[in-house]
């Protein structure tokens, strides 16, 4: 990594106790006026106060000691780089309590951070703006001068002065609504005092919304706010939220401390959702569900996001990380428990298997890079904080918590969690504090085991060998660091405390033995395992490691894929391990292709989904070769039987996972150019466009993708028209994601231009460009050129921020030529993006890995694909 910027936290000589904050946004001029009246405590006499402050102009500032005389500040010294301001006073402020008053003005910006404006159109089609906030991680300082660090907690009394006809919301319930004397069109809305809380969790929203409301069984008022006229679309999230609150209440055994919680859909929103205490903000697509027009995967996404953000109300809001180094505690934990919650609300989703494909394997892939980072990482400057909202904090964090939960068992885990929440409620905590509580509860060496996973980056590969002795199976296990470029061994090789469990074909659902591998290698004896049984390491795929079996063990295990005697999650895990081993050059890719063919009888959605994702990676890699068409044929052959079995229409008795599977398989077949699928997709698309027969929501993505992939300018035109007419953001996003599938170069350009047009919401531009880059070799090149050519506009649009990292990754990760890595590196040297530095490194590393993989295996893959077609006939 490049040099870290110097950084110091705020001095501790003055700290806030209560913020009295009054804000008056102007929704026409896009400015706001603010008055801060903060009760502060001076712990050491000083003649200056240092606070965070960015893009705000201070008009006046004063300090009055309790019962004493007001002293005007004589200087405001802005340190822009550090996002701080120093208020200087003519004489020293003495130790003790006092009131700090600051009058200031700011801009309602359009960067989706701080206090910003969000654009929407009303029923008459006119453009309007709402004023909304997004403060995490370090942007409360853009709305008011404050001590913007998670450990500096205070209470808040918020007042908003807003147009009479607008909804005004904040963390707490409204306690007063008074006429605003200076302007009869405005009202002054006062909110109840918050509990003591961190600045990044403060929120306010001023706009036009409808809502639906319910009471949770534990007496909390839950509202879901939607765009005007769309309150119906809030019902699903309302149902999830009212089920989720009592679930967490019970799981944590600590009540939700506020009287209400609002969930609100914000039109322009950078993240997916934000857990502001009592006022959770969401992208429209993470909250709104239309019974007819939303697809199954959207429902599932809404349930997960609601589950995630509500978990933060305890884990994050009530107990907050001491510093951003411990961000993973917040995000890793919430990313784990959202699955527990959805499993409770929707057992039919089989959501834990999906966890393995969505989070666990994603984390393993990223963490195998030399440019990964430990879960716990020192961060200082805001750009470094932005950078760690990544798959390590979220997905690896969630995966190691899942492993830990499995290691302690649910009962001890809950006991420890409850102790942690009670001990640290309304305070801050570090990773170690959680380990202490879990250690107390379980009597197991939690800190020692878990530190090996959170303090060092990467994870092990467990090598397994076996020997039969009579009825006993002797198993030798050893660990090495797994790297995407092959395993790492030698003197300086790190090692982990690895909880390992083993099952046999006698009972594939139950571990026969559990051990803690706390050294480089160990040998264990499984008694009563006759030769004909296979043994499987890591049943349930909960341990955060990859496995390399000896070839004889693997041979015994593989039939378990075809005959389905291995559990779905283990079929998925085995396939994913082998795929990753092939990318690392430890086995041949041909071996993985052979394995993939054993999945023809696979019934499970998630297993297919993971396999399909890896085939996508391979197909993208082979787009650099002249036998790309052969891998398409492989894909068609593999997916045809399941496609035929599923058909196009939903059958009676089918559920959520059938809908997901059909959508996946048809999309895959269509993209790979399967003729019958293409014809049917075209037919259904025509009927849809002509209004003869509306496509069911679950079929739209695969149909749109298929017709575009093999479509012309008329197809693109129609699709853009559908985009314009779409009433739901979900439908617009659905189209935006697939537009890039179009093949003709001039049409690709048209799609790229569209990405930056007014038609696409700023947060969704990355979807469109990413779609182009992902679709073909030409697309990838065109997307990268487009990003370079429009760099300034794109960078400025997101002001750094994590969307820029996402954009870079989506655009360049698929290249497989050495010189591209060099080109990308040099581009970002001359166009620095501080919060994306690590992402750039990771992409360059991935490109080099792709290139090496291609050089190593391309010939063999090509041979294999040729051979399976058989000798040419005729
Ligand atoms: N705390 C985050 C929101 C956030 C993300 C703030 C990035 C600042 C930067 C929130 O809890 C979150 O994690 N949201 C996720 C969705 C979640 C279901 C994984 C997101 O926005 O992607
Ligand atoms: Zn989160």
Give the integer mean of the pLDDT values: 96
**What hetero molecules are bound to the protein chains?**
ligand BES, zinc ion
Please list the strands of the largest sheet in the order they lie side by side: 5-4-8-2-1-11-14-13
Write out the CATH superfamily name of one domain.
tricorn interacting facor f3 domain
Count the DSSP helices: 27
Alpha-carbon distance between the two ends: 59 Å
CATH topology of one domain: Immunoglobulin-like
CATH architecture title of one domain: Sandwich
Strand percent estimate: 15-25%
Given helix and strand content, the structural type is: alpha+beta
**Name of the CATH class of one domain:** Mainly Beta
Number of strands: 29
Summarize the amount of helix as a percent range. Answer: 40-55%
List low-pLDDT spans: none
- Could you tell me the radius of gyration in angstroms? 28 Å
Global geometry: globular
Largest sheet: 8 strands, mixed
What's the SSE blueprint?
Blueprint lengths: L13 E13 L4 E12 L3 E7 L3 E10 L5 E2 L2 E5 L4 E10 L2 E12 L6 E8 L5 E8 L20 E9 L3 E4 L3 E6 L6 E6 L12 E4 L2 E6 L5 E6 L8 H19 L6 E7 L6 E2 L4 E5 L12 H17 L6 E3 L5 H19 L5 H17 L14 H6 L3 H18 L1 H15 L2 E3 L1 H12 L3 H9 L5 E10 L2 E10 L16 E7 L8 E5 L3 E6 L8 E3 L8 E4 L1 H7 L1 H4 L5 H16 L5 H9 L7 H18 L5 H19 L9 H16 L3 H15 L7 H13 L3 H13 L3 H10 L6 H11 L9 H11 L1 H13 L1 H8 L2 H12 L5 H13 L6 H32 L6
Parallel strand pairs: 1-11, 17-18, 18-20, 21-22, 23-29
Antiparallel strand pairs: 1-2, 2-8, 3-7, 4-5, 4-8, 6-7, 9-10, 11-14, 12-15, 13-14, 16-17, 19-20, 23-24, 24-27, 25-26, 25-28
Helix pairs in contact: 1-2, 1-3, 2-3, 3-6, 4-6, 4-12, 4-14, 6-7, 7-8, 12-13, 12-14, 14-15, 14-16, 15-16, 16-17, 16-18, 17-18, 19-20, 20-22, 21-22, 21-23, 22-23, 22-25, 25-27, 26-27
The structure holds ligand BES and zinc ion.
